[in-house]
Write a structure and sequence with these properties.
Helix content: over 70%
Order of helices and strands: HHEHHEHHHHH
Strand order of the largest sheet: 1-2
Number of helices: 9
Strand content: under 5%
Number of strands: 2
Shape: globular
Radius of gyration: 19 Å
Largest sheet: 2 strands, antiparallel
Distance between the termini: 38 Å
Amino acid sequence: MPAPIVSATIQATALSSVSNILAQLLDNWRKGLPLSISFPDFLRFLIVTVLTAPPNFHWQAFLERTFPGRKPTSHRDVALAERGAASTVGGGSSGLLDPIDEKSPRLRGADLRKDLEETTLDWHNTLSKWFIDCITLGAVFNTIAFLTLMNLLKSKSFSEIGHAIAKDTVPIIVAGYKIWPIASILSFSLVPVEKRIVFLSAVGLVWGVYLSLVAAAQ
Protein backbone atom coordinates (compact mmCIF):
# COMPACT_ATOMS: atom_id res chain seq x y z
CA MET A 1 0.00 0.00 0.00
CA PRO A 2 1.20 3.58 -0.63
CA ALA A 3 2.75 5.53 2.23
CA PRO A 4 0.25 7.58 4.27
CA ILE A 5 1.70 10.85 2.97
CA VAL A 6 1.22 9.65 -0.62
CA SER A 7 -2.35 8.59 0.09
CA ALA A 8 -3.00 11.97 1.70
CA THR A 9 -1.68 13.85 -1.31
CA ILE A 10 -3.70 11.73 -3.73
CA GLN A 11 -6.85 12.25 -1.69
CA ALA A 12 -6.25 16.00 -1.44
CA THR A 13 -5.67 16.22 -5.18
CA ALA A 14 -8.85 14.31 -5.95
CA LEU A 15 -10.88 16.55 -3.65
CA SER A 16 -9.31 19.66 -5.15
CA SER A 17 -10.23 18.46 -8.63
CA VAL A 18 -13.89 18.10 -7.72
CA SER A 19 -13.92 21.37 -5.74
CA ASN A 20 -12.37 23.39 -8.55
CA ILE A 21 -14.69 22.00 -11.19
CA LEU A 22 -17.74 22.75 -9.02
CA ALA A 23 -16.43 26.25 -8.27
CA GLN A 24 -15.83 27.07 -11.93
CA LEU A 25 -19.27 25.85 -12.93
CA LEU A 26 -20.86 27.79 -10.07
CA ASP A 27 -18.95 30.96 -10.98
CA ASN A 28 -19.99 30.75 -14.64
CA TRP A 29 -23.59 30.08 -13.67
CA ARG A 30 -23.68 33.11 -11.35
CA LYS A 31 -22.27 35.30 -14.12
CA GLY A 32 -24.72 33.99 -16.71
CA LEU A 33 -21.88 32.50 -18.80
CA PRO A 34 -21.86 29.13 -20.59
CA LEU A 35 -20.84 26.32 -18.26
CA SER A 36 -17.23 25.52 -19.04
CA ILE A 37 -13.95 24.59 -17.32
CA SER A 38 -10.73 26.60 -17.57
CA PHE A 39 -7.96 24.00 -17.70
CA PRO A 40 -5.18 26.47 -16.69
CA ASP A 41 -7.13 27.46 -13.55
CA PHE A 42 -7.85 23.79 -12.84
CA LEU A 43 -4.18 22.84 -13.24
CA ARG A 44 -2.94 25.69 -11.04
CA PHE A 45 -5.26 24.66 -8.23
CA LEU A 46 -4.05 21.06 -8.43
CA ILE A 47 -0.40 22.11 -8.39
CA VAL A 48 -0.96 24.19 -5.25
CA THR A 49 -2.63 21.19 -3.61
CA VAL A 50 0.22 18.83 -4.52
CA LEU A 51 2.77 21.29 -3.13
CA THR A 52 0.93 22.04 0.13
CA ALA A 53 -0.46 18.61 1.06
CA PRO A 54 2.87 17.02 2.20
CA PRO A 55 3.87 19.94 4.49
CA ASN A 56 0.37 19.88 5.97
CA PHE A 57 0.67 16.15 6.57
CA HIS A 58 3.90 16.65 8.53
CA TRP A 59 2.40 19.63 10.38
CA GLN A 60 -0.56 17.53 11.53
CA ALA A 61 1.78 14.71 12.57
CA PHE A 62 3.83 17.18 14.60
CA LEU A 63 0.70 18.49 16.33
CA GLU A 64 -0.46 14.97 17.17
CA ARG A 65 2.95 13.99 18.56
CA THR A 66 3.08 17.17 20.63
CA PHE A 67 -0.57 17.08 21.74
CA PRO A 68 -1.83 13.46 21.57
CA GLY A 69 -5.57 13.51 21.02
CA ARG A 70 -6.29 10.54 23.25
CA LYS A 71 -4.93 9.43 26.61
CA PRO A 72 -4.84 5.89 28.03
CA THR A 73 -7.40 4.92 30.62
CA SER A 74 -5.02 2.45 32.30
CA HIS A 75 -1.27 2.18 32.92
CA ARG A 76 -1.22 -0.81 30.57
CA ASP A 77 -1.95 1.45 27.61
CA VAL A 78 0.63 4.17 28.22
CA ALA A 79 3.32 2.66 26.00
CA LEU A 80 0.86 2.02 23.19
CA ALA A 81 -0.52 5.56 23.39
CA GLU A 82 2.97 7.05 23.22
CA ARG A 83 3.83 4.91 20.20
CA GLY A 84 0.53 5.58 18.47
CA ALA A 85 0.88 9.34 18.89
CA ALA A 86 3.87 9.29 16.56
CA SER A 87 1.87 7.72 13.74
CA THR A 88 -1.62 9.16 14.18
CA VAL A 89 -2.62 12.40 12.49
CA GLY A 90 -5.59 14.45 13.65
CA GLY A 91 -7.75 16.87 11.69
CA GLY A 92 -6.71 20.37 10.94
CA SER A 93 -6.84 23.21 8.46
CA SER A 94 -6.36 20.95 5.43
CA GLY A 95 -9.10 18.75 6.87
CA LEU A 96 -8.14 15.90 4.69
CA LEU A 97 -7.14 12.83 6.64
CA ASP A 98 -6.56 11.08 9.90
CA PRO A 99 -4.07 8.34 8.90
CA ILE A 100 -2.77 5.61 11.15
CA ASP A 101 0.43 3.68 10.59
CA GLU A 102 -0.78 0.79 8.46
CA LYS A 103 2.50 -1.13 8.79
CA SER A 104 1.97 -1.91 12.45
CA PRO A 105 -0.10 -5.10 12.93
CA ARG A 106 -1.10 -3.86 16.39
CA LEU A 107 -2.98 -0.96 14.81
CA ARG A 108 -5.30 -2.79 12.44
CA GLY A 109 -8.92 -3.91 12.52
CA ALA A 110 -10.14 -5.29 15.82
CA ASP A 111 -6.88 -4.37 17.58
CA LEU A 112 -7.33 -0.73 16.61
CA ARG A 113 -10.91 -0.63 17.86
CA LYS A 114 -9.89 -2.30 21.11
CA ASP A 115 -7.05 0.17 21.62
CA LEU A 116 -9.38 3.13 21.02
CA GLU A 117 -11.89 1.75 23.51
CA GLU A 118 -9.12 1.76 26.14
CA THR A 119 -8.36 5.46 25.63
CA THR A 120 -10.32 8.63 26.24
CA LEU A 121 -10.35 12.02 24.55
CA ASP A 122 -7.79 14.46 25.96
CA TRP A 123 -9.70 17.74 25.85
CA HIS A 124 -6.72 19.90 26.82
CA ASN A 125 -4.60 18.56 23.96
CA THR A 126 -7.53 18.60 21.55
CA LEU A 127 -8.28 22.26 22.24
CA SER A 128 -4.56 23.09 22.08
CA LYS A 129 -4.32 21.54 18.60
CA TRP A 130 -7.53 23.26 17.57
CA PHE A 131 -6.28 26.68 18.67
CA ILE A 132 -2.82 26.35 17.10
CA ASP A 133 -4.02 24.83 13.83
CA CYS A 134 -7.40 26.43 13.14
CA ILE A 135 -7.16 29.75 14.95
CA THR A 136 -3.53 30.85 14.74
CA LEU A 137 -0.40 29.38 13.10
CA GLY A 138 -1.97 26.75 10.84
CA ALA A 139 -4.57 29.12 9.42
CA VAL A 140 -2.05 31.92 8.80
CA PHE A 141 0.65 29.76 7.20
CA ASN A 142 -1.78 27.84 4.98
CA THR A 143 -3.47 30.99 3.75
CA ILE A 144 -0.20 32.78 2.95
CA ALA A 145 1.17 29.68 1.21
CA PHE A 146 -2.00 29.38 -0.88
CA LEU A 147 -1.97 33.03 -1.96
CA THR A 148 1.77 33.03 -2.67
CA LEU A 149 1.79 29.86 -4.77
CA MET A 150 -1.40 30.73 -6.66
CA ASN A 151 -0.06 34.14 -7.64
CA LEU A 152 3.38 32.77 -8.55
CA LEU A 153 1.70 30.28 -10.90
CA LYS A 154 -0.11 33.23 -12.48
CA SER A 155 3.26 34.96 -13.05
CA LYS A 156 2.41 37.84 -10.73
CA SER A 157 5.19 40.14 -9.52
CA PHE A 158 6.41 40.08 -5.91
CA SER A 159 4.69 43.41 -5.27
CA GLU A 160 1.41 41.99 -6.58
CA ILE A 161 1.84 38.89 -4.42
CA GLY A 162 2.48 41.08 -1.37
CA HIS A 163 -0.64 43.09 -2.14
CA ALA A 164 -2.73 39.89 -2.48
CA ILE A 165 -1.44 38.62 0.86
CA ALA A 166 -2.19 41.92 2.58
CA LYS A 167 -5.65 42.16 1.02
CA ASP A 168 -6.93 38.57 1.17
CA THR A 169 -5.25 36.81 4.13
CA VAL A 170 -7.60 38.09 6.84
CA PRO A 171 -10.83 37.58 4.82
CA ILE A 172 -9.86 33.99 3.99
CA ILE A 173 -8.95 33.21 7.62
CA VAL A 174 -12.20 34.76 8.86
CA ALA A 175 -14.14 32.69 6.32
CA GLY A 176 -12.30 29.61 7.57
CA TYR A 177 -13.35 30.39 11.12
CA LYS A 178 -16.95 29.79 10.02
CA ILE A 179 -16.29 26.16 9.13
CA TRP A 180 -12.99 24.60 10.30
CA PRO A 181 -13.02 25.21 14.08
CA ILE A 182 -16.47 23.64 14.41
CA ALA A 183 -15.61 20.82 12.01
CA SER A 184 -12.38 20.03 13.88
CA ILE A 185 -14.00 19.96 17.31
CA LEU A 186 -16.80 17.70 16.02
CA SER A 187 -14.23 15.44 14.39
CA PHE A 188 -12.02 15.14 17.48
CA SER A 189 -14.84 14.71 19.97
CA LEU A 190 -17.77 12.96 18.25
CA VAL A 191 -16.69 11.30 15.01
CA PRO A 192 -15.12 7.80 15.35
CA VAL A 193 -11.52 7.75 14.14
CA GLU A 194 -12.33 5.43 11.23
CA LYS A 195 -14.99 7.91 10.01
CA ARG A 196 -12.98 11.12 10.31
CA ILE A 197 -11.51 10.94 6.81
CA VAL A 198 -14.99 10.83 5.28
CA PHE A 199 -16.29 13.62 7.53
CA LEU A 200 -13.37 16.02 7.06
CA SER A 201 -13.15 15.23 3.35
CA ALA A 202 -16.77 16.35 2.94
CA VAL A 203 -15.97 19.59 4.79
CA GLY A 204 -12.82 20.01 2.71
CA LEU A 205 -14.81 19.65 -0.48
CA VAL A 206 -16.96 22.67 0.45
CA TRP A 207 -13.89 24.66 1.53
CA GLY A 208 -12.15 23.79 -1.73
CA VAL A 209 -15.00 25.36 -3.70
CA TYR A 210 -14.54 28.59 -1.74
CA LEU A 211 -10.76 28.60 -2.28
CA SER A 212 -11.26 27.96 -5.99
CA LEU A 213 -13.45 31.05 -6.20
CA VAL A 214 -10.78 33.04 -4.34
CA ALA A 215 -8.09 31.70 -6.69
CA ALA A 216 -10.12 32.76 -9.73
CA ALA A 217 -10.24 36.31 -8.37
CA GLN A 218 -6.46 36.59 -7.93
